[in-house]
Design a protein that fits this description.
Distance between the termini: 69 Å
Largest sheet: 8 strands, mixed
CATH architecture of the largest domain: 3-Layer(aba) Sandwich
Strand content: 15-25%
Helix content: 10-25%
Oligomer: single chain
Radius of gyration: 34 Å
Number of strands: 42
Amino acid sequence: MSVKNFKFVSPGVFINEIDNSFIPKAADAIGPVVIGRSRKGLAMQPTKVESYSDFVTMFGETVPGMGGGDVYRDGNYQSPMYGTYAAKAFLRSNVAPLTYVRLLGQETTTGNSDGGDAAAGWKTTNTISNTANSNGGAWGLFVFPSKSLNAGVAGGSKLKARQGTGSLAAIFYLDDATIKLSGTYYAASGGLDVTSAAGHLITTDDTGLFTAVISGSTGTNNIKFSFDDSKETFIRKKFNTNPQLCSDPGTFYANASAEDYWLGETFEQELRDGAGVNLGDLTTNSNLVGIVLGLGQSASAGVTSGKDPSQMKGQASREATAGWFIGQDQGASGSYHANNMPKLFRLLGRGHGEWLHKNVKVSISQVRQSTTTISDYGTFSLILRDLLDTDNQVVVLERYDNLTMDPTSPDYIARRVGDQYYSWDSVQRRLKLYGDYPNLSKYVRVEMNADADAGATDAALLPFGYFGPPKIKSLTDISGSGTKVIDTGPGGTVGGFVIGGADSIRGMGGAGNFWGDESFVTASIVFPSVRLRVSASDGGLSDPTNAYFGVQTTRISSSTRADASVADAHRLWFPSFATDPTSADPSVGITGSAYVFSLDDVRSSSAGYYYESGSRNSAGGSATSGSYTNLLDAGYDSFTAPFWGGFDGWDILQPDPLRNAGMTTAATEDNSYVYHTYRRAIDTVADPEFIDMNTLVTPGLTNDALTVHMINVCEERGDALALIDLANVYIPPHEAYKSDRSDRIGTTPTTAATALKDRRVDSSYGATFYPWVQTRDEQNGQLVWIPPTVAMLGVLASSERKSQLWFAPAGFNRGGLTDGAAGIPVVNVSERLTSKERDTLYEARINPIASFPSTGIVVFGQKTLQERRSALDRINVRRLVIYLKKQISILSSQLLFDQNVQGTWNRFIGLVDPFLHSVKTQLGITDYRLILDSSTTTPDLVDQNIMYAKIMIKPARAIEFIAIDFVIMSTGASFDD
């Protein structure tokens, strides 16, 4: 401290306290990056988790494969998700955070136009054609609620009988098959037994069951079914719901497992409600009439061809969204239209794909008008809820209270929830961040209406309703007779999924008839839309003000049981599905939103409060006094909206949509969506200034080009080690069907060693291991074969916890897999290696995992993939140098832009020398020397603004070979000789 800081007036002793004992903030711990699939979570962006419990919250539990069940509705868990095991193995040791990159299907612009392996998504092998014997595509079962015909209307020389309105009840995806209903043909002139019944009205039998006839290469099946999910005849229990069974026999499953179709969506809630007629709980189905019609659009109908639910190729992963939330009406009733209310904001998923609309809904609650004269802005709460909870028992995933539309407020909705998002720049090959406010929500981000974000809307506006999901155009008063197909109306325009003939529904009845024969029937068909709550007392709420109007996810309106089918109604119907139905193109079958809900249409009566669309314009509407505040003061201030339109971008016909066998040796980003998805994820973490990591793992990936790319990325970064898996060491069921377990070993140690040598990989930034190991899933006890990189990630963590990261992650002390070194149980190896085989592997720089009868399974090598012999051909030394470079880089950054003088040099030495000494005392290095003076930072370098230091280290080497001589001596010999 300078004496100028003291005030000297008269003689005396002046004392000042100087604290130089401040401890610099330690650098954050750095862990690995794991790339892989998971049950849920943010996708295609690095996400850091601090513990395994955090990982489960964000990405879900481990997935062992062979999930079975209702694959199409519940999700594809047929193959192990190795990344989840790698995360568990590492995080169990709690030595550092882990960054996870969840994968969803991606494609390039070139790949999108391919329609084959280059394109993300899926499709059936065959599509609907204009012939009567179409054997592919999506086919809808439309169900009408009654056998009885209503009064007819004049139609030509005969009376056209009105059948009423039927709704889409189920979708069948035909890969190579045909489907029809069999039974009693329903016509105005009475019943008639028919054998070919696609495109015909067929009644349920006396027991209330439909009969479907599905014919394909595996034969013909007659299947009786109902829509009552409490019975064994329930449609989802009777039909195949696993798309992968449509694979070629022997690809993934034995011949006997193959199918030619699968059941997709079913809409039980829609059918329970009926289309104009209440069907109760479907306990009695004897009054149902069904017809099977093709789903899709014809180019000749004035729309682009390929708008077919069975042709989802060319669709990368897409985020689910909640439609625009709208403000309230502030004028007098009589001229109100919910569609004309100002848009305020909407919510979009942050990278969850279709998981979001299958599992989450959003509620707006506690809507409050301003109660002060200072500001007209009111407040509200935003609640993310489990999709299948009920208003009687709300399950909150996230909650944000006291939000406001005031852009200047700390409680502004965009500020509190977050509006930032990443977008992939395919030219610069990196993620770019957009938006103003960091995301605090794990699930969604806010997109503000531009006027609302600029504060240009009325300050009194509050979220009072929302635009529903896109509406697929209904068909009204359609009719057919003789050889005539459904009349398309003026101009040939048709509804959402209208196909057939040249430009209308493909009836496929007889010679192309819709209803068949000479019967005259007129009817309407609609597409599913989830029910809206009508009464505040639905579900028996003790306090009706606790009711959330808007979308209702229960089985029936009075029920307190959730209905799993509501998610099916909010799926992505085809690749060009509208992202914003308020500006949808009607040429693709979307006619705006299915509905527009607003609390303004909640009316009061002596029996309570009810939602009735349009009631704002009638007496007893949302606010009898003409003000929305009347409704809020009564306590009715909550409503719920769905998410819709998410998509994962996967080929659902594959047990593992990222299987290595899906990539050829000549795979590129433009000819393989699998290759592009992996490559993009790897490139996402290529920038060391974007994400910290010291290890990169993509468990199960064996493609040569991609694993080399992983190593190159780590080498270019200079601060990470890539652990890679080798091809054909073990061939899991999701890669290929093998009738004999021995066929799952696709290589030998000698062949694997030769193959790696031929690849000429030479880098100390990569390492590999052999063979696969078996773990026991701790959730259900299932045995799972996992690639060695999974176990090794756990070994690296447990080794660091036991000692330091520069100790060799091998041997019985730190590499004993049987003893728990992997972080997860390891119970077996895919191959038991002999001593000679271990030698062969180690000479090829492949680290063997050995199994010994008495000591168990152990990692028995720690070589990197560097060909030349040096200290860096060992994993412990490479990890040591990575650690030293990273930590010293962090320490050095404190000196940037300081003066390049001796005092700054001394500060650098004062920071780095104690750090190196600490590593030395912990046996990381045997000695070191740090030089920073005028001999390193010369005047010429000073003029170039460069400070140059030299650090020389002698890494401590691990013992890998122990040689002991046993000398046998005679009895009289002296040990001192």
